[in-house]
């Protein structure tokens, strides 16, 4: 599906609130929860949602500033040569997520069991899942086992279990003496205190929270830095804007709405590198499109190709060029808003958008 109007109708309909069958290959790693669209996703999401509020953003600004300053110090020591910025950024976003949504203290976040190993292997976990999605022969259990993929899966699931168990244990111990603020409470704390999730479900959702937050944030930030490096004029605009709006002060939530040039680069990065290039949904109740011209029966599997929607020349002039000016107010007003959906739409969209 590529038509923006159809995409909005489908993703916001209560007739299509089930993810497609390909998501089942995520279950060994994250369980049948929020990301994989299992039967508990709606309740788990409801518990987590209050952590994504304005007061939380303001409360966590100190942590974001501290980690950004640490990242700046690391990058300032680099030699003047080409290097991959992703893993430096990933270390920063990992610590930010550990100390905010996961609720860990700075000392605890530096000492989580297997944190570095999990952080450096998450891409391999994704590759294992993606390979099984697109290579039908790996969906045959015997071939999956003979290929060595099953052994890899078992290694990673054991590693993730140890990592998330340590995070949850640290928060359970801390909660014996802490009384978290309801509005700024971390998501792991919400899951623990709700008493609605089993221990295994909490661990699954803890890894879901971890990987969807630190990995996605690192990819976006790395993309922004890469585009700024290739667009010196925009780099100068963004740099001057930051000096004018923020100067040498710590970044505050109020500053964010004033960083217009940075916002344009950020959105162009998301257009070019959407967090999820493809999403899949299953029709649970018959639905019609185009004023009844097309009817989708129950059980139909839909693929929303966000990657292609963001490159459709009907909506984007020179779609393969990086042009942050696409997101000026004037250009935005000319375009169907549903042609830009980097975080999906509807009740199953990205929580951290």
From TrEMBL:
- Cofactor(s) this protein cannot do without: heme
Keyword Metal-binding, does the record have it? Answer: yes
- The superkingdom listed in its UniProt entry is Eukaryota
Q: Spell out the subcellular localization from the entry.
A: Endoplasmic reticulum membrane; Microsome membrane
- Which SUPFAM superfamilies does the UniProt entry name for this protein? Cytochrome P450
UniProt-recorded Gene Ontology molecular function terms? heme binding; iron ion binding; monooxygenase activity; oxidoreductase activity, acting on paired donors, with incorporation or reduction of molecular oxygen
Q: Which InterPro entries match?
A: Cyt_P450, Cyt_P450_E_grp-I, Cyt_P450_sf, Cytochrome_P450_Monoox
Q: Provide an example Pfam family for this protein.
A: p450
Where would you say this protein principally sits, based on its record? endoplasmic reticulum
Q: Which Gene3D superfamilies match?
A: Cytochrome P450
This protein's record includes keyword Phosphoprotein: no
Task: One GO cellular component term, please give it.
Answer: endoplasmic reticulum membrane
Q: What topology does it adopt in the membrane? A: Peripheral membrane protein
Keywords in UniProt for this one?
A: Endoplasmic reticulum, Heme, Iron, Membrane, Metal-binding, Microsome, Monooxygenase, Oxidoreductase
Give the record's family classification. Belongs to the cytochrome P450 family.
Q: What does this protein do?
A: May be involved in the metabolism of insect hormones and in the breakdown of synthetic insecticides.
- Protein name, as recorded: CYP367A2
- Source organism: Heortia vitessoides
């Amino acid at each position: 599906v590529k038509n923006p109007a159809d995409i909005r109708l489908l993703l916001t309909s209560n007739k299509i609130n089930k993810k497609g069958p390909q998501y089942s290959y995520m279950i060994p790693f994250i369980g049948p929860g929020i990301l994989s669209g299992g039967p508990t996703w709606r309740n788990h999401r409801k518990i987590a949602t209050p952590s994504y509020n304005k007061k939380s953003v303001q409360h966590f600004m100190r942590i974001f500033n501290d980690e950004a300053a640490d990242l700046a110090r690391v990058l300032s020591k680099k030699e003047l040569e080409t290097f991959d910025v992703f893993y430096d950024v990933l270390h920063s976003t990992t610590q930010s997520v550990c100390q905010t949504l996961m609720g860990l203290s700075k000392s605890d976040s530096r000492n989580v069991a297997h944190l570095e190993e999990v952080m450096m292997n998450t891409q391999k976990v994704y590759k294992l899942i993606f390979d099984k999605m697109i290579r039908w022969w790996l969906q045959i259990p015997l071939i999956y086992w003979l290929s060595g993929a099953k052994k890899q899966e078992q290694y990673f699931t054991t590693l993730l279990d140890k990592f998330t168990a340590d995070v949850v244990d640290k928060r359970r111990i801390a909660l014996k003496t802490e009384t978290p603020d309801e509005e700024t409470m971390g998501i792991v704390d919400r899951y623990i205190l709700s008493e609605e999730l089993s221990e295994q479900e909490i661990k699954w959702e803890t890894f879901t929270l971890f990987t969807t937050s630190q990995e996605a944030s690192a990819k976006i930030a790395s993309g922004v830095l890469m585009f700024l490096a290739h667009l010196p004029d925009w780099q100068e605009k963004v740099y001057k804007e930051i000096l004018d709006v923020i100067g040498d002060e710590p970044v505050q939530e109020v500053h964010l709405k004033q960083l217009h040039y940075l916002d344009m680069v950020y959105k162009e990065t998301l257009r070019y590198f959407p967090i999820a290039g493809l999403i899949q949904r299953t029709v649970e109740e018959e639905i019609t499109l185009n004023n009844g011209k097309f009817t989708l029966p129950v059980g139909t599997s839909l693929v929303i190709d966000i990657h292609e929607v963001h490159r459709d020349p009907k909506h984007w002039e020179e779609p393969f060029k990086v042009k942050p000016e696409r997101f000026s107010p004037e250009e935005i007003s000319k375009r169907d808003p549903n042609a830009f959906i980097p975080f999906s739409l509807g009740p199953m969209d990205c929580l951290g958008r």
